[in-house]
UniProtKB/TrEMBL annotation:
GO cellular component: membrane
Family the entry assigns: Belongs to the short-chain dehydrogenases/reductases (SDR) family.
Protein name: Short-chain dehydrogenase
Keyword S-adenosyl-L-methionine found: no
Pfam families associated with the record: adh_short (PF00106)
InterPro entries referenced in this protein's UniProt entry, alphabetically: NAD(P)-bd_dom_sf, SDR_fam
Keyword vocabulary terms for this entry: Oxidoreductase
GO molecular function per UniProt: oxidoreductase activity
Keyword Metal-binding assigned: no
Length: 240
């Protein structure tokens, strides 16, 4: 069993998940990165190692519950423990309104944003109970307050994450398990390329950067074990 705390990060190959990986490794965690694109995971793992940290990759589609359970088994075989989750895997589609969405997109978004998050927590929970683990669910500003542009599936799935976190906290507390509903406003990542109107460089420059969110996640993960951050909303000053 590794001495270092082990953090499983979904969506770890880009954006906020990648920034969290770099920050958490600096804080002393061994980071295990999951996402569908193995090359992206490998590049982030290399970046972590180049900075002196410890990283592993587990390519995974979190919408596939069987694959999630298998990945959990591989993680535990390799590392022997699991102390934290950062669930940043997320999807949206440009066609997101009632008048242009497809049910195929709706299902794919809910499968990743909601069911995929629940699947990873479900698979990890026995180990998290042993460790007194910490779960950070990367939800959205749209999971905290209604955002007209966010879309039907995205708003519904992210809003539901608030309940996922609350039930987890209510039932996990006796095992020292704590969870955070993290609600970022606009963050300059590839995610914005899926908006119906893609923001330009000037718009992205006044948004949060992935590293801003990684610092907030670090604050949550490094809080003393008796401290729980139930919900954390973080937005750029420019957010409307
Ligand atoms: N950017 C924003 O303004 C913003 C604001 C609030 C909240 N968020 C949320 O923040 C989270 C991270 O997004 P980001 O902004 O950092 O964008 P991003 O770089 O596009 O990250 C999303 C990540 O999720 C992974 N992913 C998507 N579907 C997956 C699946 N089924 N299984 C495994 N991995 C999957 C993607 O990797 P693969 O494609 O390789 O699988 C990607 O690495 C998302 O949950 C998003 O909803 C974003």
């Amino acid at each position: 069993m590794t001495d270092a705390r082990v953090l499983w990060i979904t969506g770890g190959g880009s954006g906020m998940g990648a920034a969290v990986a770099v920050q958490a490794a600096t804080d002393g965690w061994t980071v295990v990165l999951s996402g569908r694109r193995a090359d992206r995971l490998g590049a982030v793992a290399e970046q972590v190692r180049a900075a002196g940290g410890s990283a592993d990759v587990l390519p995974l589609d979190t919408a596939d519950a069987e694959a999630v359970a298998t990945a959990r088994d591989v993680l535990l075989t390799r590392h022997g423990r699991l102390d934290g989750l950062v669930l940043a895997a997320g999807l949206n589609a440009p066609e997101r309104r009632w008048d242009d969405q497809s049910m195929a997109d709706f299902r794919a978004i809910v499968d990743t944003n909601l069911t995929g998050v629940v699947a990873v927590v479900d698979a990890a929970l026995p180990s998290l109970r042993v460790a007194g683990g910490t779960v950070v669910v990367v939800s959205s500003y749209a999971g905290w307050s209604f955002q007209p542009g966010a879309g039907v599936a995205y708003s519904a799935s992210k809003t539901a994450l608030a309940s996922v976190v609350r039930t987890l906290n209510q039932q996990g507390a006796e095992h020292g398990v704590r969870a955070t509903h993290l609600c970022p406003g606009d963050v300059a990542t590839d995610f914005l390329d899926r908006r119906p109107v893609v923001p330009d460089a000037a718009a992205r420059a006044v948004m949060l950067q992935p590293e801003d969110v990684a610092r907030a996640v670090s604050f949550v993960l490094e809080a003393p074990p008796h401290v729980r951050v139930d919900e954390l909303v973080i937005s750029p000053v420019a957010q409307r």
